[in-house]
Design goal:
heterodimer, A: about 90 residues, alpha+beta, four-stranded antiparallel sheet, 4 strands, B: about 450 residues, alpha/beta, Anaerobic Ribonucleotide-triphosphate Reductase Large Chain, twelve-stranded mixed sheet, 14 helices
Chain lengths: ~90, ~450
């Protein structure tokens, strides 16, 4: 079965527990983490996580809700978007 | 090559910080197959076809918003020009009833605007066209969602002054019948109207279109302003290049979502309209892009050149990104929907003369501007004739959306609220063109139309 890849983007201030909280959520949802990367860009802490939702136990809507909860708790912006949007915008 | 952190961040911050969105997804619906000799059956057919499809549009659009994390701000419907389908029911009361039907279908489906209650009259008026125009003030008074247009000229037919001469009085009556003259904001008069434009108020489903189609309007003035501000010192060639690259990216997101949405709805994908469309949200202003170029206030000398550069770069970037660029594709400069434009009028930097000049290089025309309520109907018609002549002679779309506000004088202001914004009332030239306009007839097509 083909993978269903999405990017989770975290933007804000670096703090303890970001990766731990999101990874735990992914594990609980049966979502595999394919890649993880982080950087400081324009004074923002930016972390991206590429995840495969093919075997996810929950709908995208539910996962996004849970991510938003984590975002609110840690005061970070967290987005989840299908990888195609990045491929379309950044590759000719 | 895998997607880098920088690239993901760029897309995410366009959405989070610079108001990148899909401004509109507009589903075109052919209503010719709804026509019936029994008017009641006819309106039921129209209601059912619009309601069913509009509900599907909303449902599928919501799914893609979630999948790609890009807001799809407006979901709308455009229909076959209503005068065409009403030829055999040519009574004023029936036109108003048809408008009520459209309004009800839109309301029950959760659609904010339905475009296409209009007519193509560039060569002349049928009885149905005339009745439609006469019904418009009541249509606007009785409906919320119905938008109307008239195409009164093309560069191959010329400009129909007899049709233009009906508009001033119609708009003044509409202004008096609707709160703050808001009905006038739902009427656009065009030259060279595109049949696949997704943006309201001028959207309609043209006669050359299939049974259904999906057109998409992308936007993102905030994103373009962001890159212009970041590149303060580059020359205009480089600036054009930077804008092109940015618009390419924005358009690609529209192309992706539009195609997928059309596929999920099982209807043909029409076009991507790559217009930069401002809103009154902070930073979402086309005027502010021009100002970031180095113009102190939009309207100052140099503005037309800056806008021309912006327009051209937008088109080039968009054309590379999508094989189906259409609609109006360029840059909108509505006055009331752009905080930078509103401020420029208030500080005296932008007047109607300069606005008209800007439309020679921008994609649409003189849009969403208020004038004093006591402006003579002939002067409104003359403003329209001037603007549309620019389109006819230059082989481009031009349009006018003008709001004569009863009881208001130049320098006053009127607040429409929401997307339609706040309009400072602009001064019109006090001299008369009545004797020119009352000659009527049709201005012949320009020599540039003779290409066969």
């Amino acid at each position: 079965m083909e993978k269903e890849l999405l990017f989770i983007t975290v933007i804000g201030e670096d703090k303890k527990g970001i990766v731990a909280k999101i990874s735990t959520l992914m594990f609980d949802c049966d979502i595999n983490i394919e890649d993880i990367n982080q950087k400081i860009i324009d004074n923002y802490f930016v972390m991206i996580m590429l995840v495969d939702m093919k075997e996810s136990r929950h709908s995208l809507e539910k996962v996004r809700e849970e991510l938003e909860k984590i975002g609110a708790e840690l005061r970070l912006k967290i987005q989840i978007q299908h990888e195609n949007i990045f491929k379309m915008m950044h590759r000719v | 090559m895998p997607i880098s952190v920088e690239e993901v961040f760029e897309t995410a911050s366009m959405i989070l910080h610079q108001n990148l969105d899909i401004r509109t997804t507009t589903m075109g619906i052919n209503l010719k197959d709804c026509i019936h000799s029994d008017f009641k059956v006819f309106t039921e057919n129209v209601y059912e076809k619009i309601l069913k499809n509009a509900q599907r549009l909303l449902k599928e659009a919501a799914k893609l918003e979630l999948k790609y994390g890009v807001p799809i701000v407006n979901k709308r419907i455009s229909i076959t020009p209503v005068s065409l389908i009403m030829e055999t029911h040519c009574e004023r009361e029936k036109f108003i009833e048809m408008a009520r039907t459209l309004d009800r279908a839109g309301r029950n489906a959760g659609i904010d605007f339905i475009g296409g209650f209009g007519a193509l009259v560039h060569k002349g008026l049928t009885a149905s066209d005339k009745t439609l125009i006469e019904s418009l003030p009541d249509v606007f008074a009785e409906t919320e969602r119905v938008c109307s247009f008239l195409n009164v000229g093309t560069n191959t037919a010329g400009l129909n002054l007899d049709a233009i001469n009906l508009i001033g009085n119609m708009l003044k009556e509409t202004a008096s019948k609707t709160k703050d003259a808001i009905g006038c904001a739902k009427f656009v008069v065009f030259a060279n109207a595109p049949e696949d434009n997704p943006f309201m108020a001028g959207a309609f489903h043209g006669v050359g279109e299939p049974d259904m189609s999906l057109n998409i309007g992308i936007s993102g003035p905030g994103v373009v302003r962001g890159v212009v501000e970041k590149n303060k010192d580059c020359d205009l060639t480089q600036l054009s290049e930077i804008i092109k690259r940015t618009v390419f990216k924005i358009t690609r997101s529209g192309e992706l979502i539009g195609r997928e949405l059309a596929k999920n709805l099982e209807i043909p994908f029409g076009i991507v309209d790559i217009s930069l469309a401002p809103t009154t949200a902070s930073g979402d202003s086309v005027a502010n892009i021009i100002e970031a170029f180095g113009i102190e206030s939009i309207g100052a000398h140099g503005t037309t050149a800056a806008l021309a550069l912006l327009m051209d770069a937008v088109k080039k970037g968009g054309a590379m990104a999508s094989g189906n660029v259409g609609g109006l594709s360029g840059t909108f400069i509505p006055v009331s929907e752009d905080t930078g434009m509103i401020e420029a009028v208030k500080r005296g930097a932008l007047n109607l003369n300069k606005l008209e000049a800007l439309t020679a290089v921008c994609s649409v025309g003189m849009d969403m501007f208020a004038i004093p309520g006591d402006t003579p109907a002939e002067t409104i018609n003359a403003i329209i004739a001037d603007e549309l002549s620019i389109g006819i002679i230059n082989n481009k779309t031009t349009a006018v959306r003008v709001i004569p506000v009863p009881g208001k004088k130049a320098g006053d202001s009127v607040d429409f609220g929401g997307l339609l914004g706040e309009a400072p009332v602009m001064m019109v030239n006090p001299y008369s063109s009545e004797n020119f306009l009352k000659r009527g007839g049709r201005m012949p097509a320009p020599v540039t139309s003779m290409r066969n």
